[in-house]
Amino acid sequence: MSKRQSNLANVATLLCFCGVTALSSTSQAATNNLDHVLNELTRQHNNASDLVKSARQPRNLALDSQLISQDTSQASKDSDVLERLSAVASNTVNRFSQTGVASWYGRQFQGRKTASGDTFDSNSLTAAHRSLPMNCYIKVTNKSNGKSVVVKVNDRGPFSSHRVLDLSYAAAKQIGLASTGTGNVVIERVAGPN
């Protein structure tokens, strides 16, 4: 696989995580026609839900920039497009926000390995999410009382379709979910634990 194809495949993986499916590592047409990829991203953005649109900033696509009209070498164009696509994907992930039902898990998983390779500790401030990157930090706010906690995502789950997040016991206790077991929360991506 060429370096260009490898770079496109890496960006495709990141974009697929963000809900963008314009790139495909098996699609030779997409890798050879970057204009098609940008047009497909724009189409998907225009047809996306309001939540996705608010997460993706159209100005980051820069479709009317010099990138499209420049007459430079293909390698230079590919590099510029890959940088812009990576920026779109990163901004989408960094501006992540979600609401839904959170629960907590604890004693039965104490000492087991998490999806990130960490050892689960119910007394640490951690969480399980289905798709957020491992070891990223999120702020979880209990909608009923306004209490918040910042936790590290180090596991996958929950595996119940009506819940969006599983908190460690310590995190659930800090925002008042330990006694009720579940509660409505707002999840926001943050830069770090502070």
Automatic annotation (TrEMBL):
Q: InterPro entries under this entry?
A: RlpA, RlpA-like_DPBB, RlpA-like_sf, RplA
Give the signal peptide as a residue range, or say none if absent.
1-29
Q: What is its EC number?
A: 4.2.2.-
Superkingdom of this protein's organism: Bacteria
Q: What class of enzyme is it?
A: lyase
The family database entries (CDD domains) matched by this protein are listed as: DPBB_RlpA-like
Q: Which residues form the RlpA-like protein double-psi beta-barrel domain?
A: 98-186
What is the similarity comment for this entry?
Belongs to the RlpA family.
Q: Record's NCBIfam families?
A: rlpA
Name of the protein in question: Endolytic peptidoglycan transglycosylase RlpA
Native organism: Enhydrobacter aerosaccus
Which lineage ranks, top first, belong to the organism behind this chain?
A: Bacteria, Pseudomonadati, Pseudomonadota, Alphaproteobacteria, Hyphomicrobiales
